[in-house]
Amino acid sequence: MTVSVEWYLLLSAAVFCVGLFGILVRQNALMFLMSVELMLNAGNINLVAFALYWGNLTGQVFALFLIGIAAAEVAVGLGIILVLNRNFDDIDVTEATTMRW
Amino acid sequence: MIVEAVLAVTLTGALLVAVGPDRYAAKLATVVSVLPLAGSLWMWTEYAGEGNALLESGEVAFQTTVEWLTLGQYTLQWYVGVDGISLPLLVLTTVLTTLALVSSWTPIDERQSQFYGLMLLLETALIGVFVSLDFFLWFVFWEGVLIPMYFLIAVWGGPRRKYAAIKFLVYTNIASLIMFAGLFALIFGLGDSITTLSLPEITQAVLADELGSFAGLEPDTLKMFAFFLLFLGFAVKVPLVPFHTWLPDAHVEAPTPVSVMLAGVLLKMGTYALLRFNFTMLPDVAADYALLIAAFGVVSVIYGAVLALAQRDMKRIVAYSSISSMGYVIIGLIAYTPHGLGGATFQMISHGLISGLLFMTVGVIYNATHTRMVGDMSGLANRMPWTVGIFITGAFGYMGLPLMSGFAAEVLVFIGAFQTSVVPAAPLLTALSMFGIVIVAGYLLWAMQQTLFGSFELETDYEIGPAPIHDVASIGVLLGLVVLLGVAPDLIYETIQDGVNPLVDFAGAALTGGA
Amino acid sequence: MNDLGTLPDWAGLAPALALVGTALLLFLYDMIEPDSQNNLLLAGIAGIGSLTALGFAGWFLLAGTGQPDRGGAIELFDGQLVVDAMALFFMAIFASVTLLVVVASYDYLAGRANQAAYYSLVMLAATGMAVMATADSFVTAFISLELASLPSYALVASLKQNQGSVEAGLKYFLVGALSSAIFVYGISLIYVETGVLQFGEVATALASGELSGVVGLGILFIIGGFAFKTASVPFHFWAPEAYEGAPAPISAFLSSASKAAGFVLAFRVFLTALPRGSVEGTLDWVIAFQVLAIVTMTVANFAALRQEKVKRMLAYSSVGHAGFVLIALGALTSEANRSFVLGSGMAHLLVYGFMNTGAFLVIALTEHWGIGREIEDFNGLATQAPFACAALTVFLFSLAGLPLGGGFLSKFYLLLAAIDGEVALLAIALVVNSAVSVFYYTRVVKAMWVEEPADDLAIEGYPSGLYVAITFAVVLTVLLLPGFGFVLEFTSTAAETVVPG
Amino acid sequence: MMGTTALTTLAGTATVPQFISLATKDVFKLAPAIALFPLASFFISLFLGKRMPKGGALAGIAATIASLALSVWLVIELAIGGGTYQETLYTFVGGASDSAVVEHTGVELTFGLLIDPLAALMLVIVSLISLLVHLFSLGYMNDEGETGLPRYYAGLGLFTFSMLAFVYSDNLLMAFVFFELVGVCSYLLIGFWFREDAPPSAAKKAFLITRFGDYFFLIGVVAIFATFGTTAFAGENSFVTMAADGLNPDVAAEGIDTPGVSEDTWFTVLGLLVLGGVVGKSAQFPLHTWLPDAMEGPTPVSALIHAATMVAAGVYLVARMYGFFALLPTVLAVIALIGGFTALFAATMALVKQELKQVLAYSTISQYGYMMLALGGGGYVAGVFHLTTHAIFKALLFLGAGSVIIAMHHNENMWEMGGLKDRMPVTYATFLAGSLALAGIFPFAGFWSKDEVLFETLAHGLGGSPILLIAYGFGALAVVLTGLYTFRMVFLTFHGEPRTDTAEDPETVGWSVKLPLVVLGVLSVVGGVLNMGVLKDIIGESNLFLHEWLDGATMDTDLGALSASHYSEVLEADYGAGYEVTDLSPLGPGVVALVFAVVGVGAAWYLYSGADPEPKMTRLGRVRTVLLRNYYQDEYQAWLATGLTLPFSRIADKFDRGLIDGIVNGIGTVSMVVGRQFRQIQTGVVTNYAALLAFSLLLLLFAFGFVGGWF
User: Fold this and answer.
1) d(Cα D263, Cα D258) in Å, to the nearest integer?
2) Is D701 in contact with C305 (Cβ distance < 8 A)?
3) Nearest CA to C171 among A81, D351, D190?
4) CB distance A76–C150 less than 8 Å?
5) Which of C85, C465, C471, D92 could bridge to C493 as Cys pair (CB 3.0-4.6 Å)?
6) Percent of chain B clearing pLDDT 90 (strictly above)
7) A5-99: which CATH architecture?
8) D682–A101: do the CB atoms touch at under 8 Å?
9) DSSP sequence for C336-358
10) What backbone torsions phi and psi does residue B350 show, to the nearest 5 degrees?
11) Which residues of D48-81 are buried (b: 16+ CB within 10 A; e: fewer)?
């Protein structure tokens, strides 16, 4: 029995919301990063599932690209978090508020 | 090409003076300013235009047209030229600039090259305003005036100069944008019937009833809407009560030569534009609201004069009385009679000269006393007889003393306004506005009595003696011009009449047809 | 189908290739000599690279490459990339801004570490932007967008010892990552509905039949992605901090080129992939952009009123200008002459590219001199550096829409566009916000020219690179007033490639 | 045409006369010089005065002599048969060939000369008085060592120029121009001693109050121009003739443009407006308050102002356009009432003044009241006659007072004088002659003219105009008071014992003072010969020289619409004032007036003639206080200016800066506050950004979701 495509959509939406929720409530930069990854993967779920549904590879190929880009993004992100830690002695994203208003 | 030459010379001169050393700036700038002066006077003697530049029959003098760029359906042009309305104002600008530059020699003692450069830049923009016949080009110059003016007030002004300068800039800029929107409402309403933004084309299209509906507004509503926005925008510049509050601040804070330019020429931009846009393009709307517009004029006259009564700062007195004087221009314009329109234009010139004269004289006194407050000094006539003599004569000129230009202008305006059938109850309104001549006498006489007469006393610690000869000379020249135009208004009035007459013709036809 | 003379099709990508080549060259150099301080060489390489890109872009533009009379747009890689007038026009903007930034960085970077990395990241980001201009599929769109973004994050944070820079990098990155995620999710929703990602095919797919809310949601999320890239409210939060904290040349780069990149992609996506006619029923993006435009202009301009730091004020101004350009999308109503409207946004982006970059470069100059960031710190600067201050005055007044530079005309063009689309609210918002903006720009001008200098105001040296870049920018800004017509030729051709007729 | 018919009948000639003859006599060509000489002296004195002997006085004297000579020549020319001369000298607006102005409006504004008997007479008076004042100034100013003499003589020159030009203006606009210039000159001269506080203030007051009057005058000028398209005084196309045609039902009038009211109403309004200027300049109630203050100026200037120039200008204007006023019964009644009332009103105040010049000032107001009374009462000739005689004896009195003031070292208080008659006989004799003339004692000049004024008013009043009778009552009563205050002045100043040391030993005065006094004294005695109206029935109408003169009887050509008989015609016409003349012998009323005058003089003799007179007026108690305070006229007018207008302007200023400017600044402030709020959105916390971002997205989602129907 195949799972109806609507369920994938729901799943991806759920993952997306979880990620968003994480971003809103976590102050740790790493957690923030992970939440973003969740959101990105919500997109991946859609792409992969619907590549099957539509019977073409476009979605899957794009998903592969996305995974790669996500990794790059994490790399840059970790670099930034590293210097954040160096400058603010913390990786709490709400701490860095020297500039506002 | 003379127009281009004048503009180019002035602009080049401005840049040259600005980068040159302070030492030579004053004299260099004055010498440079003689070139556009000579150019404009040459144009004056060679002028062979006829009629109103905006109307079909008009022949524009010294005209050049070059395509600039095409934006959408509209071709923007470099389109310059003069007619009987703009030429006198052009000459006024060049004359006043040169004299204002001379009067700067004494008070301006720091950052001179910048000051004189900006003054010439201001002159360039002002000349541009009066010669442009393409709306967009005109608007470039129109906005371009603001920038040098802002600096001139903000850098070389009095204690509250920054406030005054930014108020001037923001207030008048907002007004410009409102006006801009107003004109574009018209332009868009004209739709495909125009292909350039040249003022004659716009005017003639509007007058030919080619206005369509735009943004859901029927042509008539659109006209009204555009008129309203244009009027609002120009009313700030003129300024008409209640949009005037930037003016006293700007005048009080600006250094004297800048006040001269401000009162002498900048205010005329407003009335000039009203004449060119509101009253030439949309005479029927003007006629519909004639009573309201005339009321604006009357209120400005009386209110400005009454406020002048309450002032102690002599510059503020002249500033408020400028508001009052510009009210007459409005009353004359809305009359749509030959003497109304002609007299109003004449009043622009006349007020330019007289207010320039008074500001310069106040400046000469200030240079010596370092105060402008009535009450801080008395009996100046004992120390600077010639300056005081010119001041008294100028003040009488401001009061509309016969044989000085103010009288000729005011009488023509009154005659024109009295006769009009455009404004309801015109005789009554005219009579009401004429009461301004009594009030103006009141405050000027009061100020003169306090400061010039009595025994000599001065609150500030300055030794004063006769003013420098170049200062007296420049106010003397202005006084001479005021008297000359007062004795022989025909010198410019013929040219002005030639420019406004076609306006009376078609407007008269349109208005009687409409009414 | 296309005509590049004797050159192969892929040569159409020459500007992007020049940029990426330069980046790789710099990488190579960095690998060989990681601690190099040979600033002149590095800047030279980067400069020549961007100049080459500019040369190619300009050449192609003038030669008519990708334009209908020369065989139409060049499609590459199965329609993943497309080289047409719009792409070339924007590549020219990117290359110009990059050139200015690189020249200016020569002085800015003097004595700092990791110079080669810096230049190569700039070139990479520029490459990303160039590819964004040519992207013709959501796949390439997203990849190029990330290619532009990721180096930008690093560049913003490149002053590793500086708290502000790091904080700016962090915020930029976090908001950017979130926005990318939203963008991707939006793309995936489009894929859910259509099963294709190439723009033209998406349009074809959407044109048939009823659309569900999924598409609308997807479009909304895609708008979010662009809003981030163009720094539009409410995705603008990163901008004030990123521009303020970043090295000033990078602020210039981001606020000018990166914004333009976001817009060129948005133009293409919304006009070729998600044409309003097809998706109107589920989400009328014209309305959405109208809302965004008005909100962006108003929030940014009013917030800028009370800023005390020059750079931050410019950041808000930059957000405000995003709002102005959004008019070009918001005015694409059915009444509008669409290529005319679209052209207005492009023209403004070009002019803005010079005047805004110029303004930030003057800020870079003041940072180079060690002058403070507050407006007050600029007091009396004109006594020391009249040329730079005159240039900044021109930039600021041009930004304000006063007729000292091309900004006056391009804003006017935007106004015409708003009126052409018969969106009165946009026109009014444009006028009101222009009026408001005069005030805060003037504050800086006032500080420089009017206020008395502080006693300790002293500047040392007149760095040639920065001055060259500023001079270049100011000359172009001023020349764009009389020479605006020249720009218009390109914008109208560029706009007609995405909205024929 | 109406004008022509009128004069054929009246002048009794059968030929159809030229309305205006364009004389080619050389003297008329020279006429502009009459005014230009003093103008030249203005420039010479102003710029070269410092280097000239006598501070420029000589230039002025030469100029006025020349003017006088030319004026006399003109009079002779007219007396031996010349014609009225009218010439447009200068086109102010619209002068160019193929003028756009003229092409469009059909009118031009011009300056021109109108020389008729009236103008010629006035020219002589003005130039004569001016000459004498110049001469007198040599003693009063030069010998007293005043500084600023070039300025003084320049002022006199300009003043004379303005007045002369005003006098022979051929249109109302030009008249207004010089009317105003006269006002400015009086400002400059009254405020001559600018280093003191009072003169500048008095000068300001004089200018302001007369300007208030001129405001109405200017409206009148503009309105007349707008109504008739011309402001010319004389000629077929003058506004006077057009107005007459407009009102005359027998004539079809064209080109009159009234703003929606009937013609007679509108003309009445016009007349009243012009009258505003007259009331201001001629110091009639209620705009008389400036005149006593104007005594702050040098005394010769007072003489000039009061006798021949400034104040005379108002009355002269009425005479000049009498053809217009004669059409308007309401305006005439107002003129007569104002005149009569002012005559009485001012006389009462003169009773209690202590300063010599103050008495003369109020007497001036009073006497100009008589002239107005005459003109309002239909006595055109009488008004002009009184203007003439008054010019002479009032100039005499002022100059005599000036002489006394020199003698008294600038002390003007009469109570500190006394007994001067023996010490300054010439001054006394001439002053007495002037006083007798002023009081109206037979046979001095004032007697004849004042009697004629009263007679004309009475005659027209009895003819069915009761309002004139009231005015006559005022005038007759004032005769008594005139006698009283005049001789109170004479007795206090010259008679009795010297009351102070200065009076005991006054300074002597020179020939330059005495000469003018003698000349004027003689004229005051014999001036009445001009028009002995009281004896009309005895000597015959043709020997009333002034009447004949003003009627144009001496001229070859007909004076037409400018003639006295034409004015009577209009006055009595149905469309005009509608006056009727009772057939009354002038002898009876003349005797009555003389008796009144003698009663006044006798009262003065009774009260003040002793060796050491007491202040008798104190018995009037509070009435005296009221009189001394001038009925509080100054107070209420000062209150109008400083108590009402000034506070109002301050309130307006507060309103302006507070509310209007407040709104402007308020908009700025609101923008700033909004800006601060928007700025606060940027909290600096990246999580908040994410939240706001998500929230906004959600908001958009819901909004567009609902619109797009996604749910």
Assistant:
1) 7
2) no
3) A81
4) yes
5) C85
6) 30
7) Orthogonal Bundle (1.10)
8) yes
9) S-HHHHHHHHHHHHHHHHHHHHH
10) -60, -45
11) ebeebebbbbbbbbbbbbbbbebbebbbebbeee
The SS3 of residue B63 is strand
Q: How far is CA B53 from the centre of its chain?
A: 19
* Alpha helices per DSSP H over D609-682: 622-628, 633-638, 646-655, 661-681
Indicate if the pLDDT at residue B165 is higher than 60. Answer: yes
Return d(Cα B400, Cα C110) in angstroms, integer.
69
Q: How far is CA D213 from CA C268, D217, D284, D286, in A?
A: 77, 6, 10, 10
Tell me which residue of B393, B330, B354, B337 sits closest to B485, measured CA to CA: B354
Compute how many other C-beta atoms are within 10 angstroms of the C-beta atom of residue C102: 30
Residue B75, beta-bridge partner list: B70, B196
pLDDT at B509: 63
Residue whose entry in the numeric block shows the structure tokens 């720091």: B110
The upper half-sphere exposure of residue C341, i.e. CA atoms within 13 Å in the direction of its Cβ, equals 27
Rg (CA), chain D: 31
Residue ranges of alpha helices (H) inside C424-463 are 424-449
Q: Three-state DSSP class for B50? A: strand
Tokens of C123: 């070139």
- Kindly give, in sequence order, each residue whose CB lies less than 8 Å from that of residue B282, ignoring residues fewer than 6 positions away: B206, B223, B226, B227, B230
- Report chain C residues whose CB lies below 8 A from the CB of A45: 188
pLDDT in tens, D536-591: 777 777 778 888 888 888 887 777 888 888 888 888 888 888 888 887 788 888 88
| C66 phi-psi bin (left φ>0, alpha ψ -120 to 50, beta other) | left
The answer to whether the CB of D229 falls within 8 A of the CB of D324 is no
Domain enclosing residue B89, as ranges = 2-514
| Number of CB atoms found within 10 A of residue D640's CB | 11
Where does the pLDDT of residue D608 fall: very low under 50, low under 70, confident under 90, or very high at 90 and above? Answer: confident
pTM for the predicted model, two decimal places: 0.89
Assess whether pLDDT exceeds 90 at residue C124. Answer: yes
Q: What angle do CA C373, C375, C381 make, to 5 degrees?
A: 90
Q: Which of residues 479-498 of B touch D (CB under 8 A)?
A: 488-490, 493-494, 497-498
Give the residue ranges of DSSP H helices in D463-534: 466-494, 501-504, 511-526
The strand pair at B457-458 and C74-76 is best described as: unpaired
Helix ranges, B310-435 (H): 314-335, 338-369, 385-398, 405-419, 426-434
Burial of C424 (0-12, 13-18, 19+ CB in 10 A): middle
Residue D85 in 3-state DSSP?
strand
Out of C281, C291, C306, name the one closest to residue D672 (CB): C306
Higher pLDDT among residues A63 and D511, named by residue:
A63
- Check: CB of residue D67 under 8 Å from CB of residue D129: no
**ipTM more than 0.90?**
no
Q: How far is CA C26 from CA C54, C123, C145, D37, in A?
A: 18, 9, 21, 95
What does the pLDDT look like over D101-119, one tens digit per residue? 777 777 778 888 888 888 8
Q: Is B316 on the interface with D (CB under 8 A)?
A: no
| Contact by Cβ (8 Å): D171, D232 | yes
Among B147, B162, B217, pick the best mutation site for testing chain C contact (most C Cβ within 10 A). Answer: B147
Residues of C in contact with D670 (CB under 8 A): none
Q: How many residues does chain A have?
A: 101
Could you tell me whether strands C81-83 and D85-93 are parallel, antiparallel, or unpaired per DSSP bridges? unpaired
Closest residue in B to D177 (Cα) is B402
Q: Which DSSP letter does residue C65 get? A: T
Counted domains in chain B: 1
Domain positions in chain A are 5-99
